[in-house]
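ok so I'm stuck.
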Amino acid sequence: MGVSIEYLYEKSSHLYRMELIGGKSGVDHPVEWIHMLESPDSAFFLHGGELVFTTGVMNKGEAWLVDFVRQLHLHGGAGVVFNIGPYIKKVPQEAVRYCDEHAFPLFVLPWSVHLVDITRYLCRFIINEEKQRLSILNLLQQILIMPEQGKSICLSLENQGFSAAGRFRAAIIWSKSREYDQDAIMALLKMWNNHVIVFSYHDDLVVVLTEASYEAERRITEELYAYLTSRVKKVCISIGAAVSHITELSCSYAQAHTIVHLACKKGKHIFFYEELGIYKLLLEGNNPALLQDYYNEVLGALETHDAMHNANLTDTLYYYLMHDCNVKETAAHEYVHRNTIMYKLNKIGSIIGMDIAVEENKLAILMAFKIRDIEFQK
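replied:
not stuck anymore, here's the structure
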């Protein structure tokens, strides 16, 4: 989604005789809006993504044009259009070279063209595209709300030019930052990539990934995370499984929603559904109460003991399993003597009624800890 410079150029080149003379490799830049500026010093007014028109009325000669294109490029402009006439006689080659080197599209427009006509004409396409983008986002939200009506919603998406077949994933961005709310993060994402499909659904910020492979999805997610964390602290991104049709997006979203807090708890900033391992079996269970009961049967008595005696036997058991049942490493982790760990393990066994040296019992206890991780006991 997003109107590119190339699209606007195709629409206006013949009608308004606009000519591309530099930065041709940057015509895929998205255009947010059309803007008028007349001096290099005013480039800081740009928000990013503007196609800038100028007549040169406030300047003399040609030397300023090089600095002008440089400042527009440095401040995030999408491209520049020089209105050739009494104030700009010609474009210096140095300006053209700069635009070529930095993929910054440079156009010229004859003086006979009224700027009010071409800017109004181009803004129409940007406004229409924004309406289409909002319509598509609304339809994607409807798929999450009413997945049973996916087929009819899919037809509406196709009518808006959105291909319903392909490869899709729902990703959820979660942040503890008080400085940035969902609207602020969405604005940041749009600045990062105007083509990103992002919308708010309930308390979740949802990004729809449309990359063709897992490797591409991983790369784009890591780029997204790096961009956000340079501005927003404590961000987690959970990603549901890939689906082959947009009507199945609700399944991918449900998976991403289920694992987002698990990702944060495990300290994983980016967590794909495929990485769940044994958690996948637990999360796909249709009876959370059954998992809760299992947890209580295995570790409930130990947690009760810890609460009553201000002890940490549950943690000791967990670290023991995480250190592959190595007493020495567990003792080092807890900064105690190995004999203390041996005493604790014997006591743990008597409390939970299991011989923790038996492999089957180790597996049962480990499963209980996995259930605790996904917080079914909340």
